[in-house]
Amino acid sequence: MRTAIVKANFQQKGSKGVATKRQKNVWRSEINDIIRGACGGFLFGIPLLYTMEVWWIGSLAKPQLMMMAIAFMFIVVYLLNQIEGFRKRRYTWLAHQVAMDTVEAIAIGLVCSAFMLLLLRELTPETSLKESLGKIIFESVPFALGVALANQLLGDSRNGNAKEQGTDQVSSTTKNKEDDLHATFTDVGGTLIGATIIAFNIAPTDEIPMLAAAASPPWQLAMIATSLLISYGIVFQAGFSDQQKRKQQKGLFQRPSSETIMSYLVSLLATAFMLWFFQKLTFSDPWTMWLDHTLMLGLPATIGGAAGRLAI
Question: CA 277, CA 134: separation in Å to the nearest integer?
């Protein structure tokens, strides 16, 4: 009798342990999906975020126009979720699941755009509710589209042969210092290419001096932290192409933390050069002006640099 009771208790504890483990895996998968969607939103939505015309349209938008923008977002994101979406697992045959993913994608876009507008000081406690809602909704359109396109933007298209090539690639990168240097220079090149593609269109605009003038030192520190977190999330957390291989690479700056910092510094150098190239900064300007302008443009450049490292 006692043996039967002990076995029953053991089986009950085991089933509870399995259920708890499954619940943790579900939450971990959900968090990873949200991170992947947010990173896709940042990749797609950052360039339009640095456009003052969109701020003005949003601040002057009437409620009817805001509702039309939300309806437009829902239709387009719903259609995109039917094709791919931001989750690794797909339920394309379940219309209600696609609708739920669409609502979640729009919510992620709204949260990301609101956060970035706050970081850029385009939303302040003095901003009226109507103006805030208009700016957030109109800026969230490209973010929501980026969320729905997350897997298509930088999906793991090479996952099929990753198992076959993974061991050989990792061992080949650790054979000698030449391979380590090659991997490092490849990352630097990818960062420069991606940073230039994203930031080159923003550098000559008047938005950078305008935003830089409103950024105090605490907000500049927040800008640095946000740039590093988004870059790390895109490359090492969002589950885009060859994420596991990148974590295993060996080189001068191939650890996730050191690679993220190195790529951020490279993006800042590229940013400073672009601002000088477009005569937004000159060598006679004070170093504080160089700093705040570079940090302001460094955010989109860093996001582009992260995408560039994954694309190579």
Answer: 34
Tens of pLDDT, residues 156-180: 544 444 444 444 444 444 455 556 6
Mean pLDDT lowest among 89-98, 200-209, 216-225, 238-247? 238-247
31-34 contacts, C-beta under 8 A, 24 or more apart: 32/88, 32/237, 32/238, 32/239, 33/86, 33/87, 33/88, 34/104, 34/108
- In angstroms, rounded to a whole number, what is the distance separating the alpha carbons of residues 61 and 63? 7
For 181-210, b/e burial (b = at least 16 CB within 10 A) is eebbeebbebbbbbbbbbbeebbeeebbee
Q: Kindly report, residue by residue over 262-296, the tens digit of the pLDDT.
A: 999 999 999 999 999 999 999 999 999 999 999 99
Higher pLDDT among residues 206 and 87, named by residue: 206
Instruction: Report residue 182 as tokens.
Output: 């090659």
Mean pLDDT of the chain: 81
Report how far apart, in Å, the C-alpha atoms of 230 and of each of 36, 112, 141, 258, 306 are.
Answer: 11, 11, 19, 15, 9
pLDDT for 3-17, tens place per residue? 655 555 556 655 555
User: Is 90 exceeded by the pLDDT of residue 30?
Assistant: no
